[in-house]
Amino acid sequence: MPESTDSCGAVTRQELEELADLFDRYEFAFDPLSTEAKEAEVEFENRVNQTYETKVKASYPKISFVEFRCKMRSACREYLRKNRPR
Predict the structure, then answer these.
(1) Which has the closest alpha carbon to 54: 68, 67, 42?
(2) DSSP per-residue codes, the chain
(3) C-alpha of 10 from chain center
(4) What's the pLDDT score for residue 8?
(5) What does pTM read for this prediction?
(6) Residues 6+ apart with CB under 8 A from 47
(7) For residue range 17-28, what is the model confidence (pLDDT) as tens digits?
(8) What is the dihedral of CA 29, 12, 71, 60, to 10 degrees?
């Protein structure tokens, strides 16, 4: 049986909501150089790294951190697209 490479199940909806909020605060910031935007980016990166280390790395060894980080950024964009008030 082939090894699964889908790490989406490792992130809960609540975690995705929190990551998407942080992502939104820095990726779409009016002033991307503001302290708030920079702090949100650092917190996002820290949480993605922590999630990878604690939930993904052992369960999905073929997924690199870079791949996981890219997938989380894409998942955040998708979450915001579907859930952000218009």
Answers:
(1) 68
(2) -PPP---GGGS-HHHHHHHHHHHHHHHT-SSTTSHHHHHHHHHHHHHHHHHIIIIITTT-TTS-HHHHHHHHHHHHHHHHHHHS--
(3) 11
(4) 56
(5) 0.85
(6) 15, 18, 19, 22
(7) 999 999 999 999
(8) 150
